[in-house]
Amino acid sequence: xxxxxxxxxxxxxDVVISMRNVSKQYSKEAPAVTHADFTVREGEFVFITGETGxxxxxxxxxxxxxxxxxxxxxNVLGYDLNHIRHGKIPKFRRNLGIVFQDFRLLKDRNVYENxxxxxxxxxxxxxxxxxxxxxxxxxxxxxxxxxxxxxxLSGGEQQRVALARALVNKxxxxxxxxPTGNLDAETxxxxxxxIDRVNRDYGMTVVVVTHDRGIVERMNKRVITxxxxxxxxxxxxxxxxxxxxxxxxxxxxxxxxxxxxDDYEQ
Length: 266
Ligand SMILES: Nc1ncnc2c1ncn2[C@@H]1O[C@H](COP(=O)(O)OP(=O)(O)OP(=O)(O)O)[C@@H](O)[C@H]1O
Ligand SMILES: [Mg+2]
Known about the structure:
Layout: H1 3-11, E1 15-24, E2 33-41, E3 45-50, H2 56-63, E4 71-76, E5 79-80, H3 89-93, E6 96-100, H4 111-121, H5 126-139, H6 155-167, E7 173-177, H7 185-202, E8 205-209, H8 213-219, E9 222-227, E10 230-234, H9 235-239, H10 253-259
Parallel strand pairs: 3-8, 3-9, 6-7, 7-8
Antiparallel strand pairs: 1-2, 1-4, 4-5, 9-10
The protein binds adenosine-5'-triphosphate and magnesium ion.
């Protein structure tokens, strides 16, 4: 790619994630990620796929600043993650909704408390928490089970609660590492449809790691494929300017806020 164009692309206002020549080496063995170079724009839905050990989770952990790269630059939502000050990390993470394969719910609390916990961490005023939590649970179809202990839920239900918890703080980016890895095909498809809906309805940027080729093929989104630490293909590179179907164009976040539940300062 022409160097000038490449610079322009990285500098574009609507780029929410950019990796430039990023590598991660855990030890003297082969690097887990090598020369990763891509951008994600506001409102995009991106799958990251590839065989086991290809570096997908390592890439995701660098995006959320759980890991720092051995080389290269990462910028997420305007934060230069190579130079972010320790004290700024919580504020940075508030913009991210994270979903894990194994749900990671608090097993000694009920559905409501699991989602409310995310709001308490960012000190949302108590009066707003109830409305926000019930809204988020409603989005994932779990509002009627808000008092249930999470240990009494099916895997698919638990993942929907985890999704509500990731969404309740209205993140700008939803990052999910194998969110359907522990679910049967039908339940997995339901969870993926919910993720697709938040992307379409709220313009939320979504990055999903999955092994599941069936889901990737059925969803028809941008796909970044990794192999032995390298990005070996990215459908955005070949799709050109017309990649986005009209109905997946990013929404203006002002409209999104108005549509969603109560506003509050984060
Ligand atoms: N904490 C770690 N210390 C050392 N090596 C690691 C560590 N985490 C991952 N690796 C290695 O880095 C490589 C990439 O791992 P990563 O977890 O990113 O792969 P993945 O694509 O997410 O795989 P999977 O599909 O199995 O989750 C693998 O070779 C793995 O063994
Ligand atoms: Mg992984």
